[in-house]
Write a structure and sequence with these properties.
Number of helices: 27
Largest sheet: 6 strands, mixed
Helix content: 40-55%
Strand order of the largest sheet: 1-7-8-4-3-2
Radius of gyration: 31 Å
Length: about 675
């Protein structure tokens, strides 16, 4: 019998049972129960009703059974005695568990923390399974067993909450290790004491008053901007029901290889908060800085349901950035930046943002935030490899350029991590090197998922976004820094499995650890000259090679995330006539003074004034003339130049283009 059904069978007055428990534990449990959550939950909405969330923090033990009403009437029962024995054993083991001691070696601390985390989660999960079985047994007995049945079912739900508390403790410990400062973390403390302290293991309860706005909307959920203990973070709903019938939900489940339920329901529940939190755990466990920090939370606006809250990543989406490679690319990058930042002014003919209203003003404000980012630095190189390693391990299937951020002079940062933990067991999309890959050798089981009930190739779902880099071993890691090599090989698959318990399922963990084994085997096989010595930097040639890495298979055009980021810029390098400047040129040509100038010269310019002529000659010439200014000075002030109305209101650069055109056709000026 499912736990939910057992709870439904519990008498409505069950929660009024008086537990005769002595000592401080009872008083603390009573206080938590009456408030419905932590006394001072982080980022909390106060005034929650008692029935919103009931969580006990104390370790479940036999006293809760022995002191329950009516126990004497059923104490002789063999199942009750067996329950007592199991709870004695469980309580003793839980009380013996302690957090790792202080150490100067943060890698060792992370490994020890993940290991004991897995042990505690396993104890909790095993006891939950036993309690559910006992509840089922007692539910089939007489009414005398109703109270014990309810205690078992209720304790199982509390323990599931405690699993979240335990993973919150792990999160805080990994964060402390990342800061190389364990002073704020209760090293060596018992899990019992930390579980009883909401300031050490509490989850944020986010209510309506904490919401500051909307960050964005995705296929799965809406992301809210919220205040968490005075810090602005992003919140996602923790569990969403998505359509699995030929829509985005179907594609997502297919890419993750999550099987649809066997019943007729065409929707499926997907828990995104645990996936988000699990990616953050992997990121910190390996000492990486490739993803936003994420915490499990509760959503007070939806009855205390699961949620996740994430740090706000610095920078902007890679797809909205202008990424360029070194000083040689800077003039073109700044040219493109000037066009994009001021595009709304050019499109509307306004001479300043103050003249814009409504949607145009909002668009102009967003475009003004666009930045050009040099991705040729050592930090960018290293962080792109960190993000590739993270996605190879967690099996992210949708890392297009809108799902990671670029920070000026800084790093790549992964966001929107809920489409992680695919059941594929190969890192990236294939578990081999690009040089060994041939299209005819393609294993469709590792690239596609067959939709249930479908026949032929029409039912095959691609297992990753085609705009995501195809992370072959040798395109993601043709070489690697000594520091990153040590990080990625310092954690065993067994430790990774322990760290992820209570967050993702056993099949998902198995696939995740298999991907780590494959990646580690490849890295350990690299020749010595492919691993940079401590303190050694990537050469300019290595960076250029990495940024232009492509491959010859499947749909994706890129072999790593640096190449994916740089590709748009590189493709447009010699296509100035197809850039945003065309929109600007058209708008400028519609100005009365320019139209008059064209009219006066139309016989000499074209014999027939036509759009075809403007596209073939005037637009490209305008772009080249404009770009020449940035080649001479990358910091050229485009906006001022375009609004230099020195002659009849005609921008100077456009006037020069028209004069040149007149000269080319034989007219002297």
């Amino acid at each position: 019998m499912a736990l939910g059904h057992l709870l439904e069978r519990m008498d409505d007055t069950f929660h009024d049972i008086k537990r005769s428990i002595t000592g401080d534990t009872y008083e603390q449990d009573k206080e938590f129960y009456n408030q419905g959550y932590d006394p001072q939950p982080q980022g909390a909405e106060l005034g929650l009703t008692p029935n919103l969330i009931r969580m006990e923090r104390g370790i479940f033990g036999p006293r809760m059974i022995v002191n329950s009403p009516g126990y004497e009437r059923v104490a002789h029962n063999r199942d009750v005695r067996s329950l007592l024995n199991d709870t004695f054993s469980y309580e003793a083991q839980m009380k013996s568990k302690k957090l790792p001691p202080a150490t100067d070696n943060m890698t060792d601390f992370r490994v020890q923390l993940a290991t004991v985390n897995g042990e505690v989660i396993t104890l909790l999960q095993n006891m939950i399974d036993k309690l559910v079985d006992y509840s089922t047994t007692f539910a089939d007995k007489s009414s005398r067993y109703q109270t014990i049945m309810g205690i078992c079912a209720n304790a199982a739900t509390h323990m599931r909450d405690q699993m979240d508390f335990v993973n919150r403790i792990q999160e805080l410990g990994l964060n402390a290790a990342d800061q190389n400062d364990l002073a704020s973390f209760p090293v060596g403390a018992s899990y019992e004491s930390v579980l009883l302290d909401p300031n050490r293991s509490g989850l944020a309860m986010v209510g309506e008053s904490a919401v500051q706005g909307v960050v964005g909307n995705g296929q799965l959920n809406t992301v809210l901007k919220v205040s968490d203990s005075g810090k602005i973070r992003a919140m996602k709903t923790g569990s969403v029901r998505i359509d699995t019938e030929n829509g985005p939900g179907d594609e997502i489940l297919g890419k993750l290889q999550v099987t649809r339920s066997e019943n007729a329901d065409t929707t499926q529940e997907v828990n995104t908060s645990y996936r988000d939190a699990a990616v953050s755990v992997v990121n910190r466990l390996f000492g990486l800085h490739a993803s936003v920090g994420t915490s499990l939370a509760r959503n007070a606006m939806a009855g205390g349901s699961q949620a996740s809250i994430m740090d706000m990543a610095e920078g902007q989406e890679a797809g909205s950035s202008i990424s360029y490679f070194g000083e040689e690319d800077r003039p073109l990058a700044m040219f493109k930046l000037a066009l994009k930042q001021n595009a709304t002014l050019f499109e509307t003919g306004a001479s300043s943002p103050d003249q814009l209203t409504g949607a145009a003003a909002k668009t102009a404000k967003e475009r003004a935030k666009i930045r050009a980012v040099d991705i040729s630095t050592d930090d960018m190189m290293e962080s792109s490899m960190e993000m590739a390693a993270l996605d190879m391990i967690v099996g992210h299937v949708d890392r297009h350029a809108g799902n990671y951020m670029l920070a000026q002079g800084g790093r790549f940062t992964a966001i929107d991590n809920d489409t992680s933990f695919s059941l594929r067991k190969n890192p990236g999309i294939l578990g081999k090197s690009m040089s060994d890959f041939e299209m005819q050798d393609l294993d469709r089981d590792s690239l596609f998922h067959k939709r249930e009930g479908a026949t032929g190739t029409g039912g095959m779902i691609q297992l990753q976004n085609e705009d995501q880099a195809m992370l072959f071993y040798d395109t993601a890691f043709p070489f690697i820094s000594d520091e990153l090599f040590k990080k990625l090989t310092s954690v065993t698959p067994e430790v990774l499995d322990s760290a992820l318990k209570g967050l993702i399922s056993e099949p998902e963990r198995a696939a995740c650890t298999a991907r780590l084994r494959g990646l580690q085997d490849y890295l350990r096989s690299l020749p010595e000259d492919k691993i940079l010595r401590p303190g050694e930097s990537f050469s300019k040639e290595q960076k250029r090679q990495y940024a232009t890495t492509a491959h010859h298979g499947f749909n994706s055009k890129y072999g790593n995330y640096l190449a994916q980021t740089y590709s748009v810029f590189d493709r447009n390098r010699n296509k100035l006539d197809n850039m945003d400047v065309m929109v600007i040129a058209r708008k400028i040509m519609e100005q009365p003074d320019i139209a008059l100038m064209l009219e006066e010269r139309k016989e000499l310019l074209t014999q027939k004034y036509s759009d075809d002529y403007r596209h073939k000659y005037l637009f490209p010439e305008f772009a080249k003339r404009l770009y020449a200014r940035f080649q001479a000075n990358p910091d050229y002030d485009l906006k001022s130049a375009l609004y230099d109305n020195s002659i009849k209101g005609v921008p100077q650069i456009m006037r020069e283009v028209l004069m040149d055109a007149a000269i080319d056709t034989g007219e002297k000026s």
